[in-house]
Specification:
The protein folds into three domains: 98 residues, Integrase, DNA-binding domain (Double Stranded RNA Binding Domain), CATH 3.30.160; 126 residues; 197 residues, Orthogonal Bundle (hpI Integrase, Chain A). It is 42% helix and 12% strand. The strands form four sheets. Strands 1-2-3-4-5 form a five-stranded mixed sheet, with helices on one face. The chain has a three-stranded antiparallel sheet with strand order 8-9-10. It has a two-stranded antiparallel ribbon with strand order 6-7. The chain is elongated. The termini are far apart.
Length: 465
């Protein structure tokens, strides 16, 4: 088609024949300016010329956007701006060719610059957002994904302690008067990740240590776990200072572990009163639970989570959830077997059997907080400053007094191999059985309990002296 002078109506009326893929209309006024359209009705202004002996063509844009001639726009401040028209654009492109420049390169450069600007802006926005991330922004993710070294997950009690340590407080206490206090980790949740350094952690720890040095030290150990987790995530690694929690200025201010290491345990003379106090609780489940801690040296949560399916009366074995390994199996000693066999099997409200040996009306379905009853037993026996973990220590000391090898005692308790003084020599269940029976018999003798080990489980006959 020949050249015509473009006008608004002529541009709008230009159509592509249905038997062609595209059609062109060329402007008589501006050399190289054309209008391209398709049967789908998608017109666009184009510029066509010759550069270095080859025909080149560039798309300028839609007629809906580009006017034919330059126009003026008055800004709100009264200033005027010239809006380039498509004819003027075509002429400027031809001038570039006349100057020996390829307008396609300039267009690519302009698009690349625009894209780089957008990318740079997005990168900066992403960086600014990352810089603004707080500990609190990641805390729920940490609670969901965090875990100790070389272990698949935290123990439920440890996770509950982390949640308690990071709570805002102000909740009515379940026991006692008043409301719960703010957790020592809570102030750190508002800190930006990039602000967590040796100085900020030192200031935080010093403030928390005034309220309780041991509590603050434990909170610090927990927070170091958070820093280790965040540093393991590629998206957060550059934002955290993993070494901040281990800075000498902080560690040197921690209370001495040797000075604060607990040594509480049941003395031999206290055993009769303590076992009698357990019997006087009027709750066989909690009484058996507390005595089982003394007779096995198990950790409180290990025994609390014991399920009936983990109690093998036939082969006299217990399977406990272990802190070091996933589980450990220990012999089921005669007296403990008798006590477990006589415990009631509890049914939940939904009619299903409660799977836990030490069932309780709690969220977990088993004993979670035995300290109230534990205090009653201690008070009856006249024992002061005895912790529940002290029962585990009592088993170890009473086991030594009974003449059992240190390795056998440690294996029953679930100590890690490198903590066994005599060297780690794992024994079979049958090899452990006589030692655990020996320890149990010694404890019962010192407690003044006469027990017939030959009685079948479920037919317990015990005489307290």
């Amino acid at each position: 088609m020949g050249k015509i002078t473009f006008t608004g109506p002529k541009v709008a009326d230009f159509k592509c024949p249905s038997d062609k893929k595209q059609a062109f209309l060329w402007d008589l006024t501006a050399p190289g300016l054309g209008l391209r359209t398709t049967p789908a009705g998608e017109p666009a202004y184009v510029f066509q010329s010759v550069y270095q002996g080859k025909t080149i063509r560039l798309t300028i844009g839609s007629p809906d956007v580009w006017q034919l001639e330059d126009s003026k726009r008055v800004a709100p401040d009264g200033s005027e701006a010239v809006i380039q028209g498509v004819r003027s654009k075509a002429k400027s492109l031809q001038r570039l060719i006349d100057d020996g420049k390829d307008p396609r390169d300039l267009k690519r450069d302009a698009l690349a610059a625009k894209e780089n600007k957008v990318t740079a802006a997005a990168t900066k926005a992403k960086a600014d957002k990352a810089q603004a991330l707080t500990v609190g922004d990641l805390w729920q993710q940490y609670l969901a994904e965090g875990k100790p070294k070389r272990r698949p997950a935290w123990k439920p009690r440890y996770r509950a302690d982390i949640i308690l340590m990071s709570s805002p407080g102000g909740v009515k206490k379940v026991r006692g008067q008043g409301v719960t206090r703010v957790g020592p980790l809570y102030p750190l949740l508002a800190q930006q990740l990039t602000q967590i350094n040796e100085d900020t952690l030192k200031a935080w720890h010093d403030d928390e240590a005034k309220k309780g040095p041991d509590y603050a030290a434990r909170a610090l150990m927990m927070f170091r776990g958070f820093l280790r987790w965040a540093a393991s995530k590629p998206e957060y690694r550059s934002l955290v200072n993993r070494a901040a929690g281990g800075a000498p200025a902080i560690l040197d201010s921690l209370p001495s572990t040797k000075a604060n290491k607990r040594k509480d345990c049941l003395e031999v003379a206290q055993l009769p009163g303590w076992f009698a106090g357990a019997e006087m609780l009027g709750n066989r489940t909690i009484a058996t639970y507390l005595k089982a801690l003394v007779l096995t040296g198990a950790r409180r949560e290990e025994m609390a989570g014991l399920r009936w399916e983990d109690v093998d009366f036939r082969w006299s074995r217990l399977t406990l959830a272990d802190k070091v390994n996933d589980t450990r199996i220990i012999p089921l000693s005669p007296y403990l077997a008798q006590m477990l066999a006589t415990l009631p099997r509890v049914t939940n409200k939904d009619g299903r059997a409660n799977p836990f040996v030490f069932a309780a009306k709690s969220a977990s379905g088993h004993i979670e907080e035995p300290r109230s009853n534990f205090s009653k037993v201690n008070k009856h026996a006249g024992v002061v400053k005895l912790t529940i973990h002290g029962l585990r220590r009592s088993f170890s000391l009473l086991g030594e007094a009974a003449g059992a090898p240190a390795g056998a005692i440690a294996q029953v308790m679930g100590h890690s191999p490198d903590s066994i003084a005599e060297g780690y020599r794992p024994r079979s269940i049958d090899a452990l059985r006589p030692y655990l029976a020996q320890i149990e018999a010694h404890i019962l003798e010192q407690a003044g309990i006469v027990f017939d080990a030959k009685v079948a489980p479920g037919a317990l006959r015990v005489v307290n002296h």
